Every structure is written in structure tokens, then in C-alpha cells.
Amino acid sequence: MSKGLAFSLEDVCRLGKRIVLFPNKGVQVYFINGKYAERYVDVFQEGKKVPTVFERLPLEKIYPTIQRVYDRKTKGVLIARRAHPATQLRSTGKGMGKKIQRETEMSREQHSLVESQQVL
User: Fold this and answer.
1) Where are the domains of the chain?
2) Which of 1, 48, 54, 79 is most buried, judged by most C-beta within 10 A?
């Protein structure tokens, strides 16, 4: 199996680190923290940049507007994307997105085993 598998909200929470939303007012980049997406701004304190949470939203709320999902382990690898807001989020078959494929293949094998047992 390669790219093009559906990428669910649970997959985004488990495998994603950074997400980009469809542009509303410019590009919005959020970082995933559990089941929340956080957008940071840099605030200067005592001459040093300190990242501060600017906005925190539940992933369920913004899932339909996610355009791209980037990998948790490998820096900057695109693991899922959506072509248009009305389409489904799909895996690219790279990075941690390969885990989705393995799990899907295993579930297909299990499904075929159940079907073969029902025939007997």
C-alpha cells in the first residue's frame, strides 16, 4: 500500500506534530499538543525570545480546515494533505504516515481471516 489512505483525527493526534490550515487570513501554523492545536507567538522577555501560546483550539473543531500535516519524528516531512477543504485528508506515504499503511494492511489481513472463517 502506498499513499492516498484516509487520515483520521486520531492519526493526526498520534502522528502529527505541526499542521497548516487552509488560508483564511494568511497561513496559520499550529503545533499539536494532545488533542489540541496551539499557535505560538514569540514574546521578548529580558531580551530573549520566548514562545508563548497565542491560541489553543481543539483538533475536532479545526480538523475540516487542516490542509497539511507534518511528521512528529522526522523534521518537516509531509505525512498528509488535503487538496481542497471539501475533500478528505489523505496520507502521502512518507515518514510516520507509513504506519497507517501497515495498520491498514494488518486490518485487511484480519478481515480476510474473518471472512474465510465465516465461509467454513
Assistant:
1) 9-119
2) 79
